[in-house]
Amino acid sequence: MLLNVIEKGPPDGADPLLPPVVLLHGLFGRARNLGYFQRRLARTRRTLAVDLRNHGDSPHGLMDYTAMAFDLVETLSHHDALPAIVVGHSMGGKAAMTLALNSPEFVHSLLVADIPPARTGHGQFALGQMMLDIDFPSYLNRAEADALLAPEIPNADVRALMLQNIRLGDSPGWIIGLREIVESIPNIESWPYIPEGFSYPGPTLFLAGANSPYIRSEHYAVMRRLFPHYELQMIERAGHWLHVENPARFSELLEGFVSKY
Question: 5-120+191-259, superfamily in CATH?
């Protein structure tokens, strides 16, 4: 599946000897969510922010991480952007790890934001089902859409994320593959089977929100087995949405990692 890509780079062109940077969003997100970080990296690097399947402007279909990794190989090969430095948050981080483990030759280095290589179920099915059950009126503007979601999604940041997935105006509705996402939630919250002996030998940086429940000490052993050269950095004053809650520190660590390679 060829995915939608937003590409940016230096005005005079990026150094062809430097690997491009690929940015992968989380569940219910889209490529443009990472625009601030993409613009900063694009001052010196070729960058590609990707809409994963069922998200943004990419095609729809049932999801699991093996399929998503194949999507990335097909899409990035189409754009002549392999091998790449791959950066992924949450669901995008799992897709990035699966790509690195299945096709390590395509991943120059890897940054994973606040997700371990493990099952991480935190009730997203209920949110997705609630979104499916919303009864849209015949016309909707942004303020009305915000009011429509507010009773079910009281967190303003999460609600803003969801609002970008609604088609406003006449005949409003979800523009994402919401039904496919909801049907795939068990796969999204899970982690694919990785045969014994598989590992990614390249440089790997895990970033964890200090207030997030996702990366825990019990995950360190499997992180070391699958990513033997990994490092872990905690981002203070941040939970799971660490790039939103502490963007300055996230950007500092991201840019520092990319600049090494």
Answer: Alpha/Beta hydrolase fold, catalytic domain (3.40.50.1820)
